[in-house]
Q: What sequence folds into this?
C-alpha cells in the first residue's frame, strides 16, 4: 500500500509541477483552463512550490516510516494540503495531479493509522482536550459552510440607507465582496473578487482542517499550528477590513466596520478560543 501511495503521489506531484510551469508561462492564454485566474504568474509559482512540497514529503515517506505521531502527520499533510489547495490555484489543470495526490494521501493515512479492532476507552488520556479541539475546528468549518447558504454567516455584513434606497455590503467565501443595491424597482447585485478575502478564508479553512485532523490523531503540535492559522486569518481580516470594504465603495470609520462583523467571524473566534484553550490546557496538564 505504501509503495502504491508513493508511486501515485510522485506522478501527481510531477504533473503538478508541470501544471505550475504551464500556468506560469502560458496562463494568460489559457484562462479557461486555470479557472480564469487574474494572477497566473503568482499562482503558478504557488503551484510549483506546493507540488514540490508534496514531492519532498513523498521522498521522505519512501525512505522510512516515521515513528512519531507528529512525523506521520507532517508527511500526510505534506501530501494532502497541496492536493487540496492547488484546486484553487490552477483550475482544470489540477484535476489529474490533484486526484493522484489525494489518492496517495488516503493510502498513506491507511498505512500510518491502521486502528486495532479494540474499543477506545472513554477515560483515554487526552480525550477531553482532543474533543475540544475537534469541536472548535468543526465550529469554524460549519460557520464557513453556512456562509455559502446564508450570507449573514459571512465575515462581514453591513446595510445602510442611501436616500430612499438601501445598500448592503457582505464579505463571503471563498473570495468575493458582494455589493447589493436595493431600489424601489429592482435589486442590483455586484460581486467583486478579492485576493485578500481568498487568503483569509484559506487560512481559516486550512487551520480548522489541520486542527481537526490533529485532534483525531492526538497531535498537540499540529493542533496549535491549526489554531494559529485560524488566529492569523482573523487578524488579517481585521487588518485588511478597510481595504476590503472599499472594494464595494463602502466607507465608514473603523469602529463602524467592527460593529458590522458577521456571524462567521464571531463563530470562528469562538472555535478558535476552544482550540487554543484545549492546547493550553493540555500543555499544563
A:
Amino acid at each position: 500500500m505504501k509503495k502504491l501511495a508513493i508511486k501515485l503521489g510522485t506522478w501527481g506531484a510531477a504533473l503538478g509541477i508541470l501544471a505550475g510551469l504551464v500556468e506560469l508561462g502560458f496562463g494568460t492564454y489559457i484562462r479557461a483552463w486555470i479557472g480564469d485566474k487574474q494572477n497566473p504568474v503568482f499562482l503558478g509559482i504557488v503551484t510549483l512550490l506546493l507540488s514540490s512540497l508534496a514531492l519532498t514529503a513523498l521522498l521522505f515517506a519512501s525512505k522510512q516510516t516515521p515513528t512519531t505521531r507528529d512525523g506521520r502527520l507532517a508527511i500526510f499533510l505534506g501530501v494532502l494540503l497541496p492536493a487540496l489547495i492547488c484546486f484553487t490555484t490552477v483550475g482544470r489543470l489540477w484535476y489529474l495531479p490533484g486526484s493522484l495526490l489525494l489518492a496517495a494521501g488516503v493510502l498513506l493515512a491507511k498505512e500510518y493509522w491502521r486502528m486495532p479492532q479494540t474499543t477506545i476507552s472513554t477515560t483515554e488520556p487526552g480525550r477531553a482536550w482532543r474533543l475540544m479541539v475537534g469541536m472548535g475546528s468543526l465550529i469554524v468549518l460549519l460557520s464557513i459552510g453556512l456562509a455559502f447558504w446564508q450570507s449573514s454567516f459571512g465575515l462581514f455584513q453591513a446595510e445602510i440607507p442611501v436616500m430612499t434606497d438601501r445598500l448592503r455590503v457582505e464579505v463571503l467565501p471563498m473570495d468575493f465582496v458582494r455589493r447589493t443595491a436595493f431600489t424601489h424597482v429592482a435589486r442590483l447585485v455586484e460581486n467583486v473578487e478579492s485576493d485578500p478575502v481568498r487568503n483569509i478564508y484559506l487560512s481559516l479553512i486550512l487551520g480548522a482542517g489541520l486542527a481537526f485532523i490533529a485532534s483525531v490523531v492526538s497531535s498537540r503540535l499540529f493542533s496549535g499550528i491549526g489554531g494559529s492559522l485560524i488566529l492569523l486569518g482573523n487578524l488579517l481580516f481585521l487588518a485588511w477590513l478597510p481595504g476590503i470594504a472599499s472594494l464595494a465603495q463602502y466607507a465608514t470609520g473603523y469602529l463602524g466596520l467592527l460593529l458590522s462583523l458577521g456571524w462567521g467571524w464571531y463563530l470562528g473566534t469562538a472555535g478558535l478560543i476552544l482550540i487554543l484553550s484545549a492546547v493550553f490546557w493540555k500543555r499544563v496538564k
Notes: The beta strands are 156-162, 165-172, 176-182, 187-193.
